[in-house]
Amino acid sequence: MFFLTRDALSVHSCKMQNRTEFFVNATSPQSFSVIIKVCVVIPLFCIFLCCIAVMLQIFASHRQFLDTSRYVLFAHMLINDTLQILSSVLLFLCVMGQVKFPLLFCVPLLYVSTGTFQNTTLILAAMSLERYVAIFYPLHRPAYWHSDRIWIIILPLWLISFMFPIIEFFIGKQNPTVDVLSSNMLCKATIINSSKSQGMYRFAVNVLFFAVVGVIILFTYVRILLETRKLQQDRASVSKAMNTVLLHGFQLLLCMLAFTHPISETLTVLNTNWLAEDIAFFNYFCFILMPRFLSPLIYGFRDQSLRKHIGKRFLCCSKEDKSLLKYRFRFQSSMNCLLCRS
């Protein structure tokens, strides 16, 4: 027989107590709510990534898309929205798990999330202007609107959208007690950029971005609408361009749903007894995450050429799965026959 000493017994009892506390915390209502939220977000995020990967693979493998400036801009929007959703979901998981880490790792995540959020609106404006140029200058299109020179327009969009978050970060007064490497904190924009001046600056920049882009989309839509009344020929392509610009306006409205967060939060507090964490998740899922999921997918699946290639991709995958199942069934049946003979 083995006899446990008093120290061994105390260590054993501490371990058992820690395990009990772990299982109690894991099965608590709050932990169960966190698990449900994560299980809702992660599958949607994976579906979104699969669709984006399919569309980007189609762009890379077909020269006709790379030679069209509209599709090049759309590919950049897909990359931008993927970075935005990826950083947003990582921040969401960190907040849900109450993960605290140094400011050095938190600031880049917030920087990418904010910059890509603003860059989406600029890309939508560029796509609307591209339709305007294609209708009004079909033969004498400016050089920088060609597919091989479109980077001249895309590069300033990325620089402008990522310049404003840097200014916002340096506007606020930094706490001298916070160490960049050793001070751990929750990675939230309201904690990092918490001063009133930063809040006012952020609000002014967002209003400026969406106002300018809204005016550009409205201008291009009205101009193309007036052009359809003048032209007797090629009305189909002009009306198609008008519908495309209208779709960009709808995508802009989806992005603007993020600004309804204070109103929806107030209405939810008044009409429900939800916890603050549940209200924050509801607003994040409905007004930030879902519009970002839907905006590029609606545009991608609406396009006839792109939709045709996407359908072929999924048909090929389903045929490969069916053929694999047939080979597996034949292999199993042959093995069963061999076993029966033996």
TrEMBL record:
InterPro entries: GPCR1_Superfamily_Member (IPR052921), GPCR_Rhodpsn (IPR000276), GPCR_Rhodpsn_7TM (IPR017452). It comes from Ameca splendens. The chain crosses the membrane at residues 34-59, 71-98, 110-129, 150-171, 203-226, 238-259, 279-301. It comes from the Eukaryota. The keyword Transmembrane applies. It holds the Pfam family 7tm_1. Signal peptide: none annotated. Keywords: Membrane, Transmembrane, Transmembrane helix. SUPFAM superfamilies: Family A G protein-coupled receptor-like. Residues 51-299 form the G-protein coupled receptors family 1 profile domain. It is found in: Membrane. The keyword Transmembrane applies. This is G-protein coupled receptors family 1 profile domain-containing protein.
